Amino acid sequence: MPTPVPFKIAVSEEKLRILHQKLSLTEWPDEVPLKEPRSRGAPLQEVKTLVDYWLHSFDWRAQESKLNQFPQFTTDIDVDGFGTYNVHFIHQRSDVPNAIPLIFLHGWPGSFIEVTKILPELVQGGQNFPAFHVVAPSLIDYGFSQGNTKEGFNLDQHAEAYHKLMQSLGYSEYVAQGGDIGNFLTRFLALKYPESCKAHHTNMPTPNPPDPSKHTDLIAKIEAEGGLSEEDQYRLASTQAHHASGMAYAMEHMTRPQTIGYSLADSPVGLLSWIYEKLVDWTAGYPWTADEVLTWVSIYRFSRPGSAAPQRIYYEMMHRESMTVVDVTAQYIDVPLGTSHFKKDLLRFPTRWDATLGPIAFQAEHDKGGHFAAWECPQDLVKDLRDMFGKESPIHGCVAGQSGFT
Amino acid sequence: MADITPFKVSIPQESLDRLHQKLALADFPDELDEAEWDYGAPLADIKRLTKHWLEKYDWRAEERKINELPQFKTSVTIDRFGDLDLHFVHQKSPIKNAIPLIFVHGWPGSFLEVTKILPLLSGSSDGSPAFHVIAPSIPNFGFSQGVKTKGFAVPQYAEACHKLMLKLGYNEYVTQGGDWGWWITRTIGRLYPTHCLASHYNMLSTVPPSPTTNPLLSLQHALTPYTAAERAGLARTAWFRAEGQGYGAIQNTKPQTLGYSLASSPVGLLAWIYEKLHDWTDSYPWTDDEVLTWVSVYYFSTAGPAASVRIYYENTHDAQDARTGLPAWKLAQRWTPGVKIGVGHFPRDIYVLPPLWSRALGEVVYEGRHERGGHFAAYEVPELIVGDLRAMFGKRGGAFGVVKGKDGVVG
């Protein structure tokens, strides 16, 4: 197995220079004044303020330095039928030798950066709560991993790559955590590699409604408890609202990922608005600073695979032959599952439906937070993971020899 | 009519210079191996078009060609919105009693779509009718003013077109349109049935006849098997709905977000439009110059390219009509009394629905079932659109003489 090569992000001066030139040439659309300024997309004044800051105040080198404080590596991973991919990842081992190996899987428009608030806490512990060895890759086609240019590279292939990444680091058994695309990836890992992926946690569980032909007990239980609660109805209504007005980005990604890629590659303000709209819409009043927004966007701007690549996984997910991704990931997978529900996530379902996904080892509902749980509510997510794998938990010690405790 | 002023397109040099600056800095993504058109516009095409735009494309030459069209500007007043400056082509036929026809474009088209049919509609030969042709830039497009107030939806676009015709002295007129032109001309017919007396459509977003509103047609539909051409059309429509509507979803819901890249990235705008010029046509052999001229009309538009997608959002969120409780787009799919209808069915359009469904729209007096052509029919197959209009309005046509005293025929 090849040894991982230490890596530091080092964006060229040339790229920074071109970016500045482009920002200074920005041409602005106007805007229809609205009572709900976000209803048609990212508001003009906010985007103008961000571009102005980007041009005059944002210090990429300082942010790059901060990111480079985390131990990063690249390594080559073979994916059957597709070739070799150079995968970038953070890998931080705990001082606790028996810490639980955990792979953190991001989504769109996130990145490996999303692990950076929870990582310092997760590697702590060993006495009263478990410690983790943390691995957080840039997904292939994202961040500083290599991109893929072969058709058909689906979640199956992504899962294979990240499973093999863990294996290559000596983690024959591990647990997985993810939201957004990361949610679907944890499900594929559990499905394909149950002998290795011993437990998985998602902060955006996506069950289908209970099926009367399969889930009679669960349906009876829900009925006995008074049916869907008001909170459940609210969850479903907000999921529907997201489908009605917030899903178009995904429809474009799923059908014409290359076409939108030209705008995202060529236009810093286009990329900024495409991402920023979601950073605000998908969070529950998180006080994004300009530095945070622009760092998140810069990872896309300066990404190794370029700006058409991140959309491709959506295309592949939608065009998957045989079973749809939704049905694959909504089936019962017999690997212990933890779910954390945050108040303003985009896909929200009655929490009692989680039982259709697998054996529920942990469940938490939070009256705060949104889609980017690890970024918005790091303390809560850390606590959830500590509880899920704690000494009292039914799955304590699920990873052989790596209980998380000294 | 002092306030109808001749107009010539004249883009400031500063805009051209800025465009060139941006093209010179163009950043490109990579592409999947053997992607062709499956994932969107191919990289080689976008690179080639960008290079041509930067190095060889001569906007001033194209501008001169555009300015051979007789163009004007005037102001109309839209209820609740105020005065609106409209740009339009107005070609008066030498035949005095020519039929006044307004040609209404859509997205990503423009008034330029009328260019090829103009010479064929102006004169009357072998007894076929002549037309006075009016082709506006619809508000928010081309060289017409933009509207920055919310609620300016399809009924307002219809009002703008109607009031333009009245202002030009055409109290009674006929219409031709596809894409948004279909929705707008359907609404003109619904709102102004004593003025808009006949309409020809080349894209129809029809629905199956409803048993409650159209029982006989619905029964006929149930009993008649689809022809091979109809099955192919339904398959084409299904393809468009499954694979081709990402652009529409964004424009319907988050046009402001999309607007930043359309306004600031010529390459982004090019790719966004070019994909449709390919996907929606019947293998039309676009030249690079044609593509770039179509895109330039958006890039240099008076209201800016982001304004052009507002119609999608407004239409989706349109207020309901007070009487029926239905939004304008639903009403456009229902029977409009008093308007004689002609339909051109083109096999490579994006909605290619069984001709029988169109009979629920109103009194269909002409039906052209064509074997070639796509979404931009007047541009791709001008002779077929002209053929439809001549047949529909000619001496033996179902809409002959529909405009009193203006049958378009000499003698």
TrEMBL record, chain A:
GO molecular function, one term: epoxide hydrolase activity
Active site: 180, 314, 371
InterPro entries (alphabetical): AB_hydrolase_fold, Epox_hydrolase-like, Epoxide_hydro_N, Epoxide_hydrolase
Domain Epoxide hydrolase N-terminal: residue ranges: 5-115
Keywords: Aromatic hydrocarbons catabolism, Hydrolase
GO biological process: epoxide metabolic process
Origin superkingdom: Eukaryota
UniProt keyword Acetylation present: no
SUPFAM superfamilies per record: alpha/beta-Hydrolases
Gene3D superfamilies linked to this entry: alpha/beta hydrolase
Classification via PANTHER family: EPOXIDE HYDROLASE, EPOXIDE HYDROLASE 1-RELATED
Family membership noted in the UniProt record: Belongs to the peptidase S33 family.
Protein name listed in UniProt: Epoxide hydrolase 1
Native species: Mytilinidion resinicola
UniProtKB/TrEMBL annotation, chain B:
Any one GO BP annotation for this protein: epoxide metabolic process
UniProt domain Epoxide hydrolase N-terminal: residue ranges: 4-114
Top-level taxon in the UniProt lineage: Eukaryota
Active site: residue positions: 179 (nucleophile), 312 (proton donor), 375 (proton acceptor)
InterPro entries: AB_hydrolase_fold, Epox_hydrolase-like, Epoxide_hydro_N, Epoxide_hydrolase
Keywords: Aromatic hydrocarbons catabolism, Hydrolase
A GO MF term: epoxide hydrolase activity
One Pfam family hit: EHN
Keyword Transferase: no
Family statement: Belongs to the peptidase S33 family.
Name of the protein in question: Alpha/beta-hydrolase
Annotated source species: Mytilinidion resinicola
